[in-house]
Each structure stands twice: as C-alpha cells, then as structure tokens.
C-alpha cells in the first residue's frame, strides 16, 4: 500500500502504549500492508505501528529474509540466556547502543483474520521481537540502558538535527 515515514524519538506517540486491535477490517489490512511495505527496505529489521503514527498493537519484521507481522503480540517466552550487542532504532537514526536482550524470544498474536500466529527466534529475531513489542508498550530501547549509558544516549539524541521537540 504505502511506504510510511518513521516517527522520530520525541514524538509523543512513541511514549504511549498502543491500543489492542479489536476490529479486523479493511483499515487494519491497510495498516498491516503499510507496515510490511515500510519494513521492506535495506537495514530494517522491524517497524511497530506507533513508528508510522498509528497507535495500535501491531508490528512487522524483516529478519534474515523472513518477513511478516503480528497483531496484538504478547511476549510469552524469553530465555534466561542473554545476548549483548549494539541495538539501533529507526526512530533514533544514526545512533546505536549496547543493549542486553534475551537470546531467544517467542511472541504470540494474531493475523489480519484474527487467526493465531506464533513467531519465535534467537539472536537478531529475538532482539527484534523484544524491541518491537517494547514499542507497543511505549518503550524505546534507550530506556532499557544502564543509567550512565542512558544519560549519554539522551545527550546524543538531543544533539541530533532530527530530534523532535515540542
């Protein structure tokens, strides 16, 4: 349908919990199509609906050639084993910070026909599932950083030309 622009950190929609989807209609199909079109670009692992300005619980993913989406996702399993690595976000372009995540994650939700969907993965897929679910809860990954790194991240964000300020 449409490649949508990404909302930048500072936009209030990124700090609000998204609403669960209750109507499985053409509007939802359009949102999902837009999420899939928007994530289908080089360097994009996932896009959450709030990042395209829509406050509903849905995200798309594009990891290692696997492209899909989940509506009303819930993280139902996180491994005790963790992974550390640089995480980035389309809403914070040009920045990346070491972030600890579970090594393996499982998300359950539904598709556009309200049929059950389960997505699981390790490594980058696990990171993506956690990152995008966080977006739906109004959490941007830099909020998960240790206090010292988080202060540095916020300083770097404020120095960016793209930083949105009311």
Kindly describe this structure.
It comes from Saccharopolyspora hirsuta. 23% of the residues lie in helices and 30% in strands. It has 166 residues and is an alpha+beta fold. It has one domain (12-158): Peptide Deformylase (Alpha-Beta Complex). The strands form 2 sheets. It has a 5-stranded antiparallel β-sheet.
Short account of what is shown:
The protein is α+β, with helices and mostly antiparallel strands and 166 residues long.
**Spatial arrangement of strands, main beta sheet:** 1-2-3-6-7
Would you state the CATH class? Alpha Beta
Helix and strand composition category: alpha+beta
The total beta strand count reads 7
Using the coordinates shown, work out and report the CATH topology. Answer: Peptide Deformylase
| Multimeric state | single chain
Shape: globular
Helices and strands, with pairings:
Blueprint: H1 26-39, E1 46-48, E2 58-63, E3 66-78, E4 82-88, E5 96-102, E6 104-110, E7 116-122, H2 124-136, H3 147-158
Antiparallel strand pairs: 1-2, 2-3, 3-6, 4-5, 6-7
GO biological process, one term: translation
EC number: 3.5.1.88
Catalytic activity: N-terminal N-formyl-L-methionyl-[peptide] + H2O = N-terminal L-methionyl-[peptide] + formate
């Amino acid at each position: 349908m449409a490649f949508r622009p990404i909302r930048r950190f500072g936009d209030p929609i990124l700090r609000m919990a998204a609403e669960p989807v209750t109507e499985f209609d053409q509007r939802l199909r359009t949102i999902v199509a837009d999420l899939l079109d928007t994530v289908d670009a080089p360097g994009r692992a996932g896009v959450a609906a709030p990042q395209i300005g829509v406050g509903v619980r849905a995200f798309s993913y594009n990891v290692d050639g696997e492209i899909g989406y989940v509506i009303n996702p819930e993280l139902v399993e996180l491994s005790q084993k963790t992974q550390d690595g640089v995480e980035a976000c389309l809403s914070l372009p040009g920045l990346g910070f070491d972030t600890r995540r579970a090594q393996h994650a499982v998300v359950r939700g539904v598709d556009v026909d309200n049929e059950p969907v389960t997505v699981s993965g390790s490594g980058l897929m696990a990171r993506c599932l956690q990152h995008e679910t966080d977006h739906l809860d109004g959490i941007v990954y830099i909020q998960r950083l240790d206090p010292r790194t988080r202060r540095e991240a916020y300083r770097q964000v404020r120095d960016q030309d793209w930083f949105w300020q009311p």
